[in-house]
Structure formats: C-alpha cells, structure tokens
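User: structure tokens for Pilus assembly protein, please.
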Amino acid sequence: MIEFTGMLPAILLAFIVVWEAFLIGMSMTYAGHAANEGARTAAVNGDDQAIKREALRRVSGAWADERNVEVLHPNGRNHPDYGYVRVTIRPPLLFPGVLLPMEVSARSRVVYEGAE
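Assistant: Done. Predicted tokens:
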C-alpha cells in the first residue's frame, strides 16, 4: 500500500499529461476539419460570414465556443494567407472553460475550380 501511495502522484501526473496531449490533438483535428470546410465554402460562396459559420459547424464540444475559435480568410493579395482559410483554436486545459495560453491552427487552400 505504501508503494501505491508513493506512486500515486506520478500516475496522476502521467494521466494529466496524456489527457492534455489528447485535448491538444483534438484541437488540431477540429482546426483541420474547420479549415477544410471553410475553404470549400470560400470556393463556392466567398462570403466571410458563411465561411465562418460553416467552419464553426465542424467544431464541436468545448471547442465550439466562438470566443476560442478564429476563422481567417484574407482578401488582400499581399496577405501571407491569401487564398487560404486559417482556423485557430485555443485548446482547453484539462477541462472545458479553462484554456491553455497557446493556440493551434490549420490552414486549407481555397481551390476555385473552373475559374480561369
């Protein structure tokens, strides 16, 4: 029993690290899906509000809060993300409501088919 008590902090710390890695990975997955959906909508419709709405539909759970998700579709040719949709998400820290002080983002190229 003493060995278990001594190992309990290490076991809990390992669990917390694995759980946080899972939450960051889910944030990256949601950012990628949202960027792809935003790029598809941009190719079809180009309206910034529609792009944001459709991108946010691909984010669910604790990640779906609009305050934690940023959708960027720049129109200026001089912007480094011109022709892309970038989605940035702040991952939660252990449980919803508390956020990590970092961001994960994904970008997806807008493909305008048939436009030449």
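User: Anything notable?

Assistant: The chain has one domain: 2-109.
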